[in-house]
Amino acid sequence: MNGRWFEINNIHTVDSPSIVVYKSNLQHNISQMINGVHGEMERLMPHIKTNKMPEVMKLLLASGISHFKASTIAEAEIAAEVGAHSVLIAHQLVGPKVDRFLALIQQFPDTQFSTIVDAKETAKLLNNNAAAAGVKARVYIDINNGMNRSGIELGEGLKQLVQTITNCGSLHFMGLHVYDGHLRDVDFLVRNRKIEDGLVDITLFFETLKNENPDLKMVCGGTPSFTSHLLNQNRITSPGTCVLWDWGYSEKLQEQDFKFAALVVTRIISKPTEGIITVDMGHKSVAPENPVDKRIKFLNLEQYELLSQSEEHGVIKVQHWDELQIGDVLYGVPYHICPTINLHDEVSVIEEGQKVGAWEITARKRKLRF
């Protein structure tokens, strides 16, 4: 191998712009998740939204992880196809997605599918459609923990929703789903305090429910709160980004020991004027939702500034312009890997400094069979 861990010896076989996945780092990240729960696999429910790849799912399953969270029907489908025991679709289903979800239940009887609800109307619709299909749908109640993106707040409305689900003959109440992705303080002690403060009343309510139904579960958080929820044995954790890791979370979540498993490969395609290089990495290749200086961090380029991006071009101001040549390869860590993965059809798989194959990012499609 070359001196730097990310360099690929047969880089001439890797097109650009593209994603490369380092299998050893990916396996390290899986092991770190498992170590976090001390091997108690029932407490792990990794989110598929980050990787979207059946081959990554197979590695997770081979490690003993069999419960997953998803955002889309397609993500749930690839998990079921490779043998997942259970998949929670953490999105309140509306429109055609309701019947697509029920079709998954019918097609994959060995996988336990569930979804979330935060309104009585949604619960009743799902119940009616499930009854018509002759199946029973598992549901978690989505709790609004202050993020104000989805979920129902604590109060009388929540109690009524629990009663509605209980009265629906084609629904099976699984427990509570609590996502706290808005809490991302760099200082872990500060972040942990906010997370725990936000869960005090929710936990009391959950314990009341468990007194009547001991089988209920509480699924909590994502990668930012993973290290907090690990400390409570009664919570199921659902990290996602940490499977591949990225620049953004490596800055914010410094107590977490994950490695960069996915990089963007790009090449210099022009040197249009002194001090400026252009690469073939536009905003169709790396997630553009952040300001231009918070999109990618290059590992083999120093003293640079990403000035702008268009669809297929990235313009970079550099200090050592004379040392760089058209065709040179740059390796970059995306600030946000999840939407970056969704921009590509496949990844190149790297083992011991060599590209050894490619994996399809199957679930970037909104619809597969169902």
CATH class bucket of the largest domain = Alpha Beta
* CATH architecture annotation name of the largest domain: Alpha-Beta Barrel
Distance between the termini: 43 Å
**Topology order in helix (H) and strand (E) letters:** EHHEHEHEHEHEHEHEHEEEEEEHEE
Mean pLDDT: 97
The number of helical segments is 10
Number of strands: 16
- What oligomerization state is this entry in? single chain
Radius of gyration over C-alpha positions, nearest whole angstrom: 22 Å
Tally of structural domains? 2
Q: What structural class results from the helix and strand content?
A: alpha/beta
Poorly predicted tracts of residues: none
Shape: elongated
Estimated share of beta-strand residues = 15-25%
CATH fold-level name of the largest domain: TIM Barrel
Indicate the percent of residues in helices: 25-40%
Instruction: Note the main sheet.
Output: 9 strands, mixed
